[in-house]
Amino acid sequence: MASEKDVLSARIEPEYIASLDAVAKSQGISRSKLLREFALNAATLYEFLKAEKERQQTDKITLNGNLSQWVVEHTPAHVTSELMHFLGEVMHHAAEMKDAQGKEPKTGKAKGGK
After folding, report:
1. 85: CB partners within 8 A, 6+ apart
2. CB 3.0 to 4.6 Å from 33: which of 29, 42, 48, 55, for a disulfide?
3. Using alpha carbons only, what angle is made at residue 42 by residues 103 and 100, rounded to the nearest 5 degrees?
4. Would you say the C-alpha torsion 82, 92, 63, 76 has a positive or negative sign?
5. 23 has a pLDDT exceeding 80
6. Which ranges in the chain belong to alpha helices (H)?
7. More confidently predicted of 19 and 56
């Protein structure tokens, strides 16, 4: 039995698509499967970053050796360095989007048509 699925649409730069494809290929999965796995694990990564931000009591997270070592020690064995690089790119892009959204005037309308 097929599960119900929503369609997610986003405008993404070609280099990010290439990065997605490279990671999917290295994992032997489709781009859609890769995105589903990212979505499935997004809360964990986000909660980790939020907790680290609170622990450091700053708006900017300092990525030091201890934090990097913790990530390496708590990363599932199947996660490659390519996937970790991609996640870094995704977070950087998301931060840029958030910055841009903060600079846009509020109109009261939600973007995306929903």
Report:
1. 19
2. 29
3. 10
4. negative
5. yes
6. 14-27, 31-56, 65-74, 81-103
7. 19
